[in-house]
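Risk register update: the risk of archive-format incompatibility is retired. Evidence:
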Amino acid sequence: MPVITEIEDLKRIYKRRVPKMFFDYCESGSWTEQTFRENSSDFDKIYLRQRVAVDMNGRSTATQMIGQDVSMPVALAPVGSTGMQWADGEILACQAAHEAGTQFTLSTMSVCSVEDVAAHVDKPFWFQLYVMRDWDFVVRMIERAKEAKCSALVLTLDLQILGQRHKDLKNGLTVPLKPSLSNIADLSTKWSWAAAMAKTPRKSFGNIVGHVKGVSDLSSLSVWAAESFDPSLDWEKVRQIKDLWGGPLILKGIIDAEDAKLALNSGADAIIVSNHGGRQLDGALSSIRALPAILDTVGDKMEVHLDSGIRSGQDVLKALAMGAKGTYIGRAAIYGLGAMGKKGVSTALEVIRNELDKSMAFCGRKTIKDLDRDILLIPEGFEGRWQPA
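Archived output:
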């Protein structure tokens, strides 16, 4: 068993064990992938201030996200088709997150259904909702999340239409799966992945098949999925969804301060500064660059979380010190899942927790509430100096 000391170790194993089309689905962005790359590389531009001769006994990474206790402010982000990265992936990832004392967010486009995940865990998890043209489906999906005892709804705002991801098109990644000859050859070398997938009956989008009019199998799902996302999603629909849900609401996909103002007025409990991992609008600001202006806009009137680009505990520390109250990992958790199943997700979370804890200590801070911008060295003009419109 290899020694895992960083997320990159898991990524290397993941790349060997999972079919190329699914690795590329995870490890890619839209168009030129500029935003995808800068989501991570922009963290490297922020430096930490080391402090010494500070009592470091009694350290803790525990805190709360939207009023719910977490062992560290790092939740698992919603990732579509997680159950194709590894058999029963959503169930395993949720179990790992709960065992680590943090939260898991189930995607609308998950392989394991919300009911299926709920049946295999003993704590509430969060549910991420995509708004579809089929409003009846949206209403029913919210009710199903309630019945599954989900403790928060994460509403994604930045996927009204799909961004173009070149690798998925070139790999022929479709629903249902129609692999090319090269993909068939690749699949034949991924023995552990294939063996695990052969044992599970969960191979389609569990939240959708059998729950949408006219969608009863993978063939009909393909037609529905092609034109399913609602391009007319607006703030009025956000308010309608808030009323339908009635519980804690988190808005995901805020990357501009003007949208943060509108989110604040919508009555949401929190927002996630996110550009969908660089998978939608290429050429947009990285999440960490966009964070300061959004924090300046909403102040302490609502919780601000951050997603996209986090690959280490130091990335988490930098986001928190800048003012975020929570963070999310998507790709880092998928690397672990594809590398070693549930154990890999647990390992990814522990790697990040360990680095967060030790880096926080080196900066002279003992608890999450003690973190502030004073531990950071942020380059002048980090947010950019843009010409006025």
